[in-house]
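Entry under discussion copied across for reference:
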Amino acid sequence: MLIRDTLLARLLPQGDSSHITHELTRMGCQAPEAVLAASDQRVVYKLLDVPFSTARLFLTWWQQYGPEAWNYCTGGATGDTCELLVGGSAALFNRVRGEQAPGLQPIVAALDAARRLQAQAPWSLALGTHVYDVQQRTALMGILNVTPDSFSDGGLYLQPAQALKHAETMLTAGADLIDVGGQSSRPGAAPIPAALEQARVVPVIRDLVQRSGAVVSIDTYRASVAAAALDAGAVLVNDISAMTFDAQMAPLIARRGAAVVLMHMQGTPQTMQRTPSYRHVLDEVYRFLAERLHCAMQHGIPRHKILLDPGFGFGKTVQHNLALLHGLEQFAALGQPLLVGTSRKSFLGHLLQRHVGDRLEGTLATVMYAVLHGAAMVRVHDVAPVAQTVRLVEALKQSGSHV
C-alpha cells in the first residue's frame, strides 16, 4: 500500500517544471537548469517524514546512478525527519525496484507503491448501476440541503415538496447526481440528533429515487443515517470525516457495496475554523487522504467506488484553500477520482468581497481551474451555469488534444 511506516511517496506532476521549482524553493533549494530542462522527461517523487539517517544513506546510494538521478534532502524538517525530493527517468525507477539496498527498503517500497498505485488508477467511477468515465468527463453533484441552517441555502428546501422540486430542477440543468444533507456542517454548527437528521433526508431520497431514478448521495458522517439513506435508494456516502467519526461507517459501506467520498477536515464543524494551522497544508491533506484510502481498501471498499475530497473550507484559511487549489494535480498521485467543492465558500467571499449569495463568479472560476487540473467531480449549488462552464472547458480540452 501507499503507507509504509512513516514514509509516504508522492508523485509530482510531470511536464511543468514550476511544481518542482516551487517544492525546491519551499525546501530552501535552487533548481539547477539541468533538472528543469529535463523535468518533463523525468519522474519526480516527494518523500515525507524520512528519517535523517535513512535520507543520508539514500543520498549516497542514489548518487551511483550519476546524472540520470538527482535528489534533494533539505528544509521542511521536524525532529529527526526531513522531506526528500527524488528524480530520475521512469526506466531508472523501474530498474531499482529489484535491487537490494540494505537499510533502504522502506524508501524503495514507498517509491514502488506510489508508482503502482497511480498505474492502477480506476478509469471509471461506479455509483450504483451508473458508471462514469472519470478520464473523459467531469461529473456534477448538485447540493440539496434539507436543513434550516446551512450556510448558503438553509431553510429553502426543508419541506420535502420544495426539496424534490429543486432536485428535479438541478437534474434538468445537468446534475449527474444529487447530494442530500440533513445536518449543517457550516463552521460552528452544532450537531443534531441522528433521528432528526434521518427524518429529514430519508423521505426526500426515497421520493427522489422513485420519481426520477436519480443517482443520490447522502451527506452524513453517521452510519445509522447512511444505512437508512442506502435503504431509501442512495448509492454514495459523502462523509466529511472520511469515516473517522463513526467506527461502523467503513464496515457498513463495504457490506452494502456503496461508494464513498473521503474528505479532509481539520477538527470538527464546531472547531475547524477557529485557528486552522498546518506546517504544509498540501502534504498534510495528502497524507490524511492516503491513510483514509488505505483504510477504505483494507475494509474491502473497491477503488472504483472511492472519491477523495481535499475539503475546501473545512479547517482552512484563505491561503490554505488557494494552496490546495494550486496543488490539485498532485493529488493525482493517489490514483483516485477527485471531488472538489468550492461552491459559494467563504474564502471566495473574502477574496472577492462578496456575500454568500453573490459568489457565482468565484465559484465558476474555481470550478474551471479544478476541471483543468484533474477534478473528476464538482459539488455545486448553481448547477445550470456550472454545467455550461464545465462542458465548455471539456470541449476546449478535447479540441486541444486533437490539434
User: Anything to note?
Assistant: The radius of gyration is 22 Å. The mean pLDDT is 87. The chain has two domains: 3-119, 124-401. Residues 194-212 form the longest helix (19 residues).
